[in-house]
């Protein structure tokens, strides 16, 4: 603390304070807001008031209180304002402008400048950004002659400054500097006609503009105090708070590594302070979503993801770090997230990604399907931290690890192999819990080979059976690809790439290795080191099945085939449906667990492999739809399919009921085999056999009944099941024939729907009896029922129609 000339509370001018102390705006303060473009009304009002005071040329026009601490830094007395930053900055700029205008810059420098290491330093500076501090130093050390400016009102001070040779383009991204330039332009508009006003402003005998100075050393400079007292200021962003503490933390680490800034050798903390406000900031500035967007949230997203990924490599990961509220600086300190290695890695990756004033630097020379460096960087910095996105984070982590481990010596082809493998592994690994994510992060370093070692060789040599961290089926696929790509015959590269880059397969093509018998060979030998003659045969097989696969699947999934012939062709070979909870699905192009890709993966059903093998052996790529039709017709003739599959094979319109949802059925519900519109029995659904009958015979005439109708339900009530039904009115009494399916047979129920006391004319009873109906009493109500097989149901209904037609 500075005791000399200590001031507790008094009326002072800006000049009196800066003659006695350096004025340093602390890290905890926000950027200079009064000069923002959006603050034009407040800025003009304040400058009008200052002009009014100077015009009046009378003493003691107070600008309210200025609070702050007095301390000592490098043996220099320093005043650190807690409240008053905006007014002090504006007064600093006003003194500079009037001194320049009145040719009093020499006098100004005597009060405003000191020398450190033979370099002029401004006694007024900002600690929030290194660039702000450097701008203040430079502004006071450079000569600007505005007296020779033509048409002063139309020209701007900011234009003169930014066009000067000493102005750095990186300063364009510093909001404090930009606000200062805006303020200088506004000061120029208000004071360009003022003459000898610097003398008035600096007159010690007539202190025109003053403020009440209050020293708060007894309170201490704390975050809480700042928040309470600086009520009219905009709160610091999350990143500004975090960065301020991180910079102080890095200095305390006392890391010995050294870096170079414009031929100057500096320690880690100096390098970080400089780069975070210049070159690294430029990178994020180039990736703003819009011109009006700030970049602090982008920087914070980037930091958070790198911090979590770094901490994931250690034991006892604190899950609170996955939450937005858990990523405070204190939490990061508590859980040892910010060790020296993290700081060095952070610096390394930012240095490798920065690209001047342009978007992120790229290392893969041409467009690469599996990893777009620009797109992934945008995904990461715009990602909501506590939401989804594990896959993107893992892939980006792997990218960063490669760049860091190679220390700038990047082999584009090796990087492409690495990113293709990691991207495929992450994309096809299920991340249901944080633990799944942590395992993958730790697996990345296990998979990354040492510098100079081929990635393909490294991947192919890892023991897949014991490997944890990514999906084991996908890992096996990547190992097979690695083995094939290592073969001398480069045809494998083109063949694999052609089908891998098909948008629907999207890197997952293990089923083709299965169909081509490559997977079987690999499982037996742990390699693909077959003879050149065998290689030709394997490549031919792979090519044939690839063409067939592309004939069935386009970029969006299964192609549209008439009458759902693809599904029917699968059903004649077996039950290919995949289970999800209590339901089974006929599969969709999307949806992870019930997609066609999951079916091709063969990890959800023991039936999948045999069905896939059978159908792909028979289909013909040249005329795919016709070959599917022939498969269905041939199998219908040669095999006697009598279970539920026959309904779909012979009545493909059943599929249309499923198209609006996840194509779910429930084979064993209380109401039998049902087709669901949604996921649950509480939603609309129909019963398979009765709905199939309805679709098939809905156009038929069943006189004296009306046309066949269907009753779908939205509950699992056994007493009110989904059913087909026929209606008949005789002698003003309404009768209904319900057609249900229970215990693998049709149940026909004939009921009086009108009378409270169910009575039936004898001729009706006789007709029912002739068709093998019998009386059934249900809760006191009389009805008539019969059970018949699938082959007998329509004949029974027709016979009943004949009997009742005679009566009517």
Structure characteristics:
about 800 residues, alpha+beta, 5 domains, six-stranded mixed sheet, six-stranded antiparallel sheet, 33 helices, 23 strands, about 45% helix, elongated, GmrSD restriction endonucleases N-terminal domain-containing protein, GmrSD_N
Please characterize this protein's 3D structure.
The protein is an alpha+beta fold. The chain has five domains: about 10-235, no CATH class; about 235-450, no CATH class; about 450-550, no CATH class; about 560-670, no CATH class; about 685-805, Yope Regulator, Chain: A. It has a six-stranded mixed sheet with strand order 1-8-3-4-2-7. Helix 17 packs parallel to helix 19, helix 22 packs parallel to helix 25 (about 530-550) and helix 26 (about 565-570) runs parallel beside helix 29. Pfam families: GmrSD_N.
Number of separate strands: 23
Query: In what range is the share of β-strand residues?
Result: 5-15%
Name the strands of the widest sheet in spatial order: 1-8-3-4-2-7
Number of domains: 5
Ranges where pLDDT stays below 50 over 5 or more residues in a row are 1-8, 218-233
Task: Tell me the Rg in angstroms.
Answer: 40 Å
Question: Sheet with the most strands?
Answer: 6 strands, mixed
Estimated helix fraction = 40-55%
List the total number of helices: 33
Q: What structural class should be given to the helix and strand makeup?
A: alpha+beta
Mean pLDDT over all positions: 89
Q: How many angstroms separate the termini?
A: 112 Å
The geometry reads as elongated
């Amino acid at each position: 603390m500075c005791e000399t000339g200590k001031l507790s509370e008094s009326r002072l001018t800006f000049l009196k304070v800066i003659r006695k102390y350096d004025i340093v705006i602390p890290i905890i303060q926000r950027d200079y807001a009064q000069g923002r473009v959006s603050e034009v009304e407040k800025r003009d009002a304040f400058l009008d008031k200052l002009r009014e005071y100077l015009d009046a040329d009378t003493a003691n026009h107070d600008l309210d209180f200025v609070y702050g601490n007095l301390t000592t830094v490098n043996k220099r007395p320093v005043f650190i304002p807690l409240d008053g930053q905006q007014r002090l900055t504006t007064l600093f700029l006003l003194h500079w402008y009037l001194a320049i205008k009145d040719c009093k810059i020499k006098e100004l420098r005597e009060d405003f400048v000191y020398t450190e290491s033979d370099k002029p330093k401004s006694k007024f500076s900002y600690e929030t950004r290194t660039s702000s501090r450097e701008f203040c130093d430079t502004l006071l050390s450079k000569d600007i002659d505005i007296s020779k400016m033509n048409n002063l009102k139309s020209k701007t001070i900011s234009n003169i400054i930014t066009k000067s040779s000493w102005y750095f383009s990186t300063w364009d991204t510093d909001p404090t500097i930009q606000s200062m330039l805006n303020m200088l332009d506004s000061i120029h508009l208000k004071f360009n006609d003022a003459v000898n006003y610097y003398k008035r402003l600096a007159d010690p005998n007539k202190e025109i503009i003053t403020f009440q100075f209050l020293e708060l050393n007894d309170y201490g400079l704390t975050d809480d105090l700042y928040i309470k007292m600086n009520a009219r200021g905009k709160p610091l962003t999350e990143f500004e708070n975090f960065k301020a503490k991180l910079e102080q933390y890095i200095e305390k680490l006392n890391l010995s590594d050294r870096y170079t800034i414009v031929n100057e050798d500096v320690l880690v903390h100096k390098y970080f302070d400089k780069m975070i406000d210049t070159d690294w900031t430029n990178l994020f500035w180039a990736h703003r979503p819009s011109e009006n967007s700030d970049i602090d949230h982008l920087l914070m997203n980037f930091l958070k993801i790198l911090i979590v990924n770094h901490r994931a490599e250690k034991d006892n990961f604190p899950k609170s770090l996955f939450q937005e509220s858990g990523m405070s600086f204190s939490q990061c300190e508590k859980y040892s997230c910010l060790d020296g290695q993290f700081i060095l890695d952070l610096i390394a990756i930012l240095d490798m990604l920065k690209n001047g004033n342009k978007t992120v630097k790229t290392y893969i020379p041409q467009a690469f399907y599996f990893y777009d460096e620009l797109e992934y960087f945008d995904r990461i910095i715009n990602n909501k931290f506590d939401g989804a996105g594990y896959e993107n984070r893992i892939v980006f982590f792997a990218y960063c690890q490669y760049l860091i481990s190679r220390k700038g010596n990047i082999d584009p082809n090796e990087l492409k192999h690495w990113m293709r493998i990691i991207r495929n592994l992450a994309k096809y690994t299920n991340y249901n819990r944080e633990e799944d994510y942590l395992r993958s992060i730790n697996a990345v370093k296990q998979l990354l080979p040492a510098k100079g070692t081929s990635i393909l060789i490294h991947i192919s040599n890892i023991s897949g059976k014991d490997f944890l961290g990514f999906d084991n089926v996908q890992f096996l696929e990547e190992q097979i690809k690695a083995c094939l790509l290592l073969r001398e015959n480069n045809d494998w590269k083109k063949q694999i790439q052609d089908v891998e880059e098909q948008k629907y397969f999207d890197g997952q093509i293990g089923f083709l290795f299965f169909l081509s018998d490559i997977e079987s060979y690999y499982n037996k030998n742990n390699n693909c080191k077959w003879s050149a003659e065998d290689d030709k045969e394997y490549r031919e097989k792979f090519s044939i099945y690839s063409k067939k696969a592309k004939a069935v699947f386009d970029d969006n999934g299964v192609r549209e085939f008439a009458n759902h012939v693809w599904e029917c062709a699968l059903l004649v070979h077996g039950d290919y449906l995949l289970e999800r909870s209590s339901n089974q699905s006929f599969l969709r192009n999307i949806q992870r667990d019930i997609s066609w890709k999951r079916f091709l993966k063969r990890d959800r059903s023991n039936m999948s492999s045999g069905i896939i093998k059978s159908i792909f052996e028979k289909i013909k790529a040249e005329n795919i739809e016709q070959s599917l039709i022939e498969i269905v017709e041939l199998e219908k003739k040669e095999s006697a399919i009598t279970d539920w599959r026959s309904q779909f094979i012979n009545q493909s319109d059943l599929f249309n009921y499923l198209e609006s949802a996840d194509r779910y059925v429930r084979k064993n519900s209380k109401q039998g085999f049902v087709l669901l519109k949604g996921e649950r029995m509480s939603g609309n659904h129909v019963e398979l056999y009765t709905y199939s009958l309805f679709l098939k015979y809905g156009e038929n005439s069943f006189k004296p009944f009306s046309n066949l109708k269907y009753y779908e339900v939205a509950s699992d009530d056994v007493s009110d099941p989904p059913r087909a039904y026929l209606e008949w009115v005789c002698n003003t009494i309404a009768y209904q024939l319900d057609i249900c399916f229970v215990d693998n047979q049709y149940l026909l129920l004939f009921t009086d729907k009108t009378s409270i006391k169910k009575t039936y004319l004898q001729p009706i009873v006789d007709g029912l009896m002739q068709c093998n109906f019998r009386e059934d009493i249900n809760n006191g109500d009389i009805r008539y029922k019969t059970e018949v097989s699938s082959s007998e149901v329509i004949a029974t209904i027709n016979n009943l129609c004949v009997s009742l037609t005679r009566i009517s």
